[in-house]
Structure formats: structure tokens, C-alpha cells
């Protein structure tokens, strides 16, 4: 018997990629899983594979989150684990329109705020609950080629830290997943920077799910499916200038490759 066996779990963006692997991993460990996705067919397919329930919809808007959590409570009775996983990689630099920055903010940050707003009252009363945020190594470091992604993933990681710091003593467990490249459609669409920076060390979504299950068993906050990220994170904190010089060299490499392709 683990903390996952018999638990009621929700996974947003569970129709594909990392979310699908999280849903499968949790179901294999004995959880009863609600799979949310914007793509109703994808959510239904994963629900069928996992013996779970599909609740399609937008997991970032206030109403979408409210409807999802109400439907999940109806199916599961109680939500023990909420994986706020849906995320988008949009925009590039300061020229990216405000509306795109705002979309990144809504999905990559406010989705977590809105979900915890709904879940916390019950969890604090009960004295337990588990909130999982899929952030990114970009939330600890940076993602060359996408300022909106980097900034909002830092926001996601920061919000997860805030939740843990504020409510751990009241029974809330928080895990923050921070992978580098993972072989999903998001990575496939990540352009030259994504291919150069992430492709070589890219892992399978199932490895992310495994890292989460291990981290849950060990009670770890930071889930690092790429262990080398810890070293980069330490370097960023201890010698930020050196870390930035390394990132600048990588940016120049990306630009050289892009020039070569023209
Ligand atoms: N793939 C990577 O290299 C990588 C690395 C680090 C972090 N991440 C993060 O992992 C998470 C999952 O990414 P992925 O690579 O599996 O992406 P993906 O694009 O393969 O899958 C994301 C799924 O989320 C769904 N979705 C998007 N917005 C939604 C919304 N508002 N409500 C409900 N569903 C929504 C999509 O329909 C899709 O099925 C994201 O938060 C992403 O930022 C991905």
C-alpha cells in the first residue's frame, strides 16, 4: 500500500505527452484518475487505457478549473492528488504581443493558482492533499528562444515553493517537476533553440512519471528527471555570471546554426 494506491488523482493536459505518462503511471500505482485535456478525444483515449474518467475542458480559466474539480469530485469522491500539468510554450522575445504573454501567464501560472484556490479549503480542513506542478528546468534556469516560457515557468516554480512553504505544516505536500527536454509534441515544435539545447538529452515522458513516483515516495519537492539540472541550478545560484556566460555561448551557437540554415 502506497500513498497513491486508491487515491483520487486529477491530471490536467493528460491527453498527451507528459500528462498522459503521469496519468498512466498514477493509474498503474493504483490511483483512480481523472484525465483532463482541451482535446476531448485524447482525454477519452487515455481514460479508456487507464480505467479512468475523462473530463475535457480548459484547465487554466477560472470556470474551467471550477468545472473540472467539481466533475472530478463527483467521479472520485475526493481529490487526493492534483497534477497541474497542462502548459504551453508560446512566444519568443519582447516583440511577442502582450496577448501571447498573457496566454502563457494564464496557462503556465494562473492555472496552478486557480486550482489551489479550489482545492486548499478542503485539503487544509482534512489535513492532507498533494499538489503537483509541472514546471520545467526553464523555471530554475532559462529557456533560450522563449522569454514568455522562461518567465512563466519561473512563476510556476515560485508558486509551488510558496505553497509548500506556507502549507506544509498543515498537511499539504507539493512536488514541482522540472525536466529539460522530453520527447513530446511540445519539444518537436520547439524550433531551433529547442532542438539544439534539448534534443540530445531528451528523455521519454514515462521517465518523468517514474521520477515523480520516486519523488512522491521520498517526499521530495523538486523532481529532476534530468539529474544534471541540479548542477546547473547550483552554478546559477553560486556563480550567476559564469552561468550567464555559458548561456550566452549557447545562444551564439543557436544563431550560428540558424545563419547556416538560411
Ligand atoms: N516536452 C518538454 O520538453 C517539456 C520540458 C519541461 C517541461 N514541460 C512541461 O510539461 C507539461 C506538459 O508538456 P508536454 O511536453 O507533455 O506537452 P504536449 O503539448 O505534448 O501536451 C500538452 C497537453 O496539454 C493540453 N493542454 C494545453 N493547454 C491546456 C489547457 N489550458 N487545459 C487543458 N489541457 C491543455 C494539450 O491539449 C496537450 O494534450 C507542460 O507544462 C510543459 O511546459 C515540457
Q: What proportion strand?
A: 5-15%
Total number of strands: 7
What gross morphology would you assign?
globular
The number of helical elements comes to 10
What pattern of helices and strands is seen along the backbone?
EHEHEHEHEHEHHHEHH
Q: Residue share in helices?
A: 55-70%
Low-confidence stretches: none
Major β-sheet, in short? Answer: 7 strands, parallel
In order across it, which strands form the biggest sheet? 3-2-1-4-5-6-7
Distance between the termini: 57 Å
Write a structural description.
Helices cover 56% and strands 11% of the residues. α3 (62-76) packs parallel to α4. α5 (147-167) links the parallel β5 and β6 (172-177). It is of the alpha/beta class and 262 residues long. It has a 7-stranded parallel β-sheet, sandwiched between helices. Nicotinamide-adenine-dinucleotide is lined by residues 12-13, 15-19, 36-39, 42, 58-60, 85-88, 107, 134, 136, 179, 181-182, 184-187, 198. Nicotinamide-adenine-dinucleotide (NAD) is lined by residues 12-13, 15-19, 36-39, 42, 58-60, 85-88, 107, 134, 136, 179, 181-182, 184-187, 198.
Task: Provide keyphrases for this structure.
single chain, 11% strand, 262 residues, seven-stranded parallel β-sheet
Chain-wise SSE layout:
Elements: E1 8-11, H1 17-28, E2 32-35, H2 40-50, E3 53-54, H3 62-76, E4 81-84, H4 98-126, E5 129-134, H5 147-167, E6 172-177, H6 185-188, H7 191-198, H8 205-218, E7 222-223, H9 228-238, H10 240-261
Parallel strand pairs: 1-2, 1-4, 2-3, 4-5, 5-6, 6-7
The protein binds nicotinamide-adenine-dinucleotide.
Amino acid at each position: 500500500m502506497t500513498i497513491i494506491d486508491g487515491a483520487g488523482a486529477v491530471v490536467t493536459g493528460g491527453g498527451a505527452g507528459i500528462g498522459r505518462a503521469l496519468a498512466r503511471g498514477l493509474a498503474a500505482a493504483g490511483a483512480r484518475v481523472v484525465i483532463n485535456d482541451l482535446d476531448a478525444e485524447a482525454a477519452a483515449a487515455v481514460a479508456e487505457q487507464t480505467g479512468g474518467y475523462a473530463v475535457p475542458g480548459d484547465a487554466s480559466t477560472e470556470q474551467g478549473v471550477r468545472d473540472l474539480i467539481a466533475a472530478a469530485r463527483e467521479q472520485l469522491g475526493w481529490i487526493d492528488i492534483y497534477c497541474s500539468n497542462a502548459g504551453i510554450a508560446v512566444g519568443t522575445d519582447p516583440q511577442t504581443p502582450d496577448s501571447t504573454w498573457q496566454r502563457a501567464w494564464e496557462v503556465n501560472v494562473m492555472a496552478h493558482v486557480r486550482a489551489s484556490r479550489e482545492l486548499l479549503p478542503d485539503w487544509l480542513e482534512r489535513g492532507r492533499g498533494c499538489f503537483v506542478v509541472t514546471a520545467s528546468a526553464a523555471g530554475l534556469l532559462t529557456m533560450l528562444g522563449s522569454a514568455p516560457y522562461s518567465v512563466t515557468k519561473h512563476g510556476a516554480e515560485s508558486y509551488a515553493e510558496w505553497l509548500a512553504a506556507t502549507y506544509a505544516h498543515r498537511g499539504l505536500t507539493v512536488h514541482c517537476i522540472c525536466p529539460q527536454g522530453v520527447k513530446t509534441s511540445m519539444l518537436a515544435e520547439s524550433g531551433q533553440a529547442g532542438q539544439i539545447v534539448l534534443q540530445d538529452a531528451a528523455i521519454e515522458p514515462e521517465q518523468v512519471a517514474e521520477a515523480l513516483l520516486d519523488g512522491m515516495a521520498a517526499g521530495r519537492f523538486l523532481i529532476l528527471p534530468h539529474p544534471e539540472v541540479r548542477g546547473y541550478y547550483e552554478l546559477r545560484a553560486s556563480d550567476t555570471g559564469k552561468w550567464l556566460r555559458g548561456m550566452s555561448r549557447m545562444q551564439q551557437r543557436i544563431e550560428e546554426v540558424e545563419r547556416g540554415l538560411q
